[in-house]
Amino acid sequence: MRKVLRDSGMVIWRNLLGVRRNPAMLTAATVQPVMFVLVLAYVFGDSLGGGPYREFLMAGIFTQTVTLNAAFTTIGMANDLQKGIIDRFRSLPMSRVAVILGRTGSDLLINVLGLAVMSICGLAIGWRINGGVVDAVAAYGLLLLFAFAMSWVGALVGLVSRSVEVAQSAGFLWMYPVTFISSAFISLTNLPGPLRAFAEWNPITTVSDACRRLFGNPNLAPTAGWAAEHAAGYSVLACVAIIAAFLPLAVSRYRWAAGR
């Protein structure tokens, strides 16, 4: 375990150096979320309740952004494969898991930056944390846990993609339907039966709802059922299940890719 953590730390540092040398990579993690906040708050917000909707909106945007940021992992893994970096790592006496763990770890730090930028933007448009400090920390912790889980999905997608171009398309292909079929931005009452059932058990719905409760924000789209009543617990279980499912798949695919 010590070797895995040491090697993962080196890969994290290598990935962050790449970001420092190419700051444009942070555009999607900072500028894009701000655009979502402003567009949804001012274009749709005034027609959907004004201030209360803006407070309702922020938890959904937080959750959507950490989900979309899994594309960093997807593109990063595909890029390393295409450029032969994985072959170089394979020649070094380092843990195989460390390469993927380093990628997901560095992208987790990028998510920290993205959440900070969005929080500042949210405060500027009227969003407030009305709960306690401990609850707010728990909300951000849940968002980062969910971001880490989504990164493992992104890692697997990147490893099965044949090129960076394919990874860019595949990385977002599954994200938008999963993100928007949820209560992140709207009420589920008008969705047809199958979509509503999916949305009620969608982790994006429960993470958004749990964060609203922890932040003390109004929930203008309350959902019913066991998952809604235990939103925080269900979200944590969903994150653990996603990591448990995709971590071994990603590692197995990495070993296959590195051994071609």
Automatic annotation (TrEMBL):
GO biological process entries: response to antibiotic
Keyword DNA-binding belongs to the record: no
Chief localization: membrane
Subcellular location: Cell membrane; Membrane
GO molecular function: ABC-type transporter activity
Keywords from the named record: Antibiotic resistance, Cell membrane, Membrane, Transmembrane, Transmembrane helix, Transport
Domain (ABC transmembrane type-2) ranges: 24-257
Keyword Iron in record: no
InterPro entries according to UniProt: ABC2_TM, ABC2_TM_bact-type, ABC_2_transport, Nod_factor_ABC_transporter
Classification via PANTHER family: NODULATION PROTEIN J
Family to which this protein belongs: Belongs to the ABC-2 integral membrane protein family.
Official protein name in the record: Transport permease protein
